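Reading a protein record of the kind used here takes only a little practice. To see the layout at work, look at the sequence and C-alpha cells printed below.
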Amino acid sequence: MPKLTHKYLLAITFQQAGQLVRDEGGLFGRVRLKVDGTVSIPFYYRYRYGGKLHDISCGTWPVDSLAQIRAKRDEARGATAAGIDPATRKKVNRIEMQEAMLSKIAQTNAQREAQLTVADLFDLWIVNGVKRKDGNADLKRRFTADVLPSIGGVAISELSEHDLREVLRTLVMRDANRSAVMMLHSLKQMLGWAQKRQPWRRLLSEGNPVDLIDIRTIVSAAYDMNKVRERVLSAAEIRELQDIFKRMRVEYATAPDRRVAAQPLEIATECAIWIMLGTMCRVGELSMARWEHVDFDLAEWFIPRENVKDRVGNQTVHLSAFVMTQFRRLHECTSESVWCFPSRDDTKHINARVITKQISDRQTSLKHGRDGGPRAVMTHRCQDDRLVLQSGKNGAWTAHDLRRTGATLMQSLGVTLDVIDRCQNHVLAGSKVRRHYLHYDYSREKMEAWTLLGKRFQEILDHQKSEEPDAV
C-alpha cells in the first residue's frame, strides 16, 4: 500500500467527499466536506483485540499533522502488540488527565480560599448575611473604624481568639465597654453565619475563635455587665443647659470678630434637645420627622411605623405647650423643607448621628480617642466643653439620656409605668394573646402624661422649684 504524503492530502478536493483514504499500518480515513467548503479527514487505526476488530481515533487532518496521526497509530499498535487494548488505555489516560486537572483545580481553589481574609468575609456578610434598619450603616462604620484596620487582612484560616480579643481590648482602653460588648455580638453573628457556609466553614474547621472569648475578662473591672446606662439629667442640669444655650448666643452676638468666634449650637439642634426631653422620643425618630406629620392645630406629632425602632407601630405624640414652643421655633428655621431636620442639600433628612455628634463634640474632655487617650482633633468639627454639665461630675450626657430623663421625670409625677411605656412606644411585656386582643390606645392617658411632663419642664426652666437643685 502506498504511503500517504502531505502533498497528496492537500490535493484532495470537495468532490472527493466520502472517499476512503488509506495509509500503511492499518491507518485509514474518510474525506468529509466542511460547511466552509474545505475538507477534513478523521483518521482511525483498525486493530484486532479479543477476537474482534476495533477502530480507535488517531486525529483529524489538517488539524493534526500526518506525523502526529501516525505517532498515535504507532502508540496504539505498540499497545496491541503488548496485549493491551489501546481504547482502554486511551480511556484510562483521559481519566488520569481529568483527575490530575481536577486535583490542580482543587489545589488552586484551596490556595485561593486560604487567602480569604476577615475583610473578604465582612464584605460578603454585610450584603448577604445581615440586614438592619439603617441599611447596616452603623455596622459598616464600626467595623471600618475598629475591626478592619487591625485584623481586616488576617486570613480566616489563621484568625485566632487573640486577634479578636485585641480588637475588643482596644475598645475597652478608650472606655467604650458597651461598644466592646456590642462588637462581640456582631463578630459572633458574622462568624456564626460564616460557619454555616462554604468555603468559610472549611476555613474554620478548627473551630470558631469567637466562641473562646469571655467578654467579662475583657471589659473594665468597674463595668457592670448587667447594668444599663443610668445617666439622668437633674433639674439643676436642665436649668444649666438653658443658661448655656443663652450664653452661647450672647457671646457670639457680642464677639468682636464673629469669623473666629465659637458659633453657638444650631437652633435646630437646641430645639431637638428640648423636644426629646418633652416627648421622650428617640433621636432617630425625630431626625426623620416631616412637617406634614406635625399638626399645630391638634398639637400632635405623628411618627409612622417605619420611623420607629424595630417598627413596633405608629405613634401619635401629644405636644404639650412646652414642646409646641420648640416645634414652632424649629418651624421658623426649616419650614421651607418637607423635613423638620433637612440635610444640607435638602434632599433627605439628617442622619441621627448629626445631633448625637453635636452634643458629644461639645463634651470633648469627657470623651476618649480610639487608643484610649484624649480624643484627637477632628477637622470641620467643633470640639469644646460648652455642653459639659455640673463641671462633668456626673459624666457626659447623650441624646438617649434625654429620653431616660423624660421617662424618669414622668415617673416622679405619678404616671403609671404602663402609660410611660406607651409614651415611649415600647414593646409591651406580657402575653401575646393580651397584645392581640386588647387594643385600647391610651390616648387620653398619654396626652395627660405628656402635658404633665411639659409643665414640669417649664417649671424647672422658670426656676419655680429651684429649691430642688439635684432632683428631676
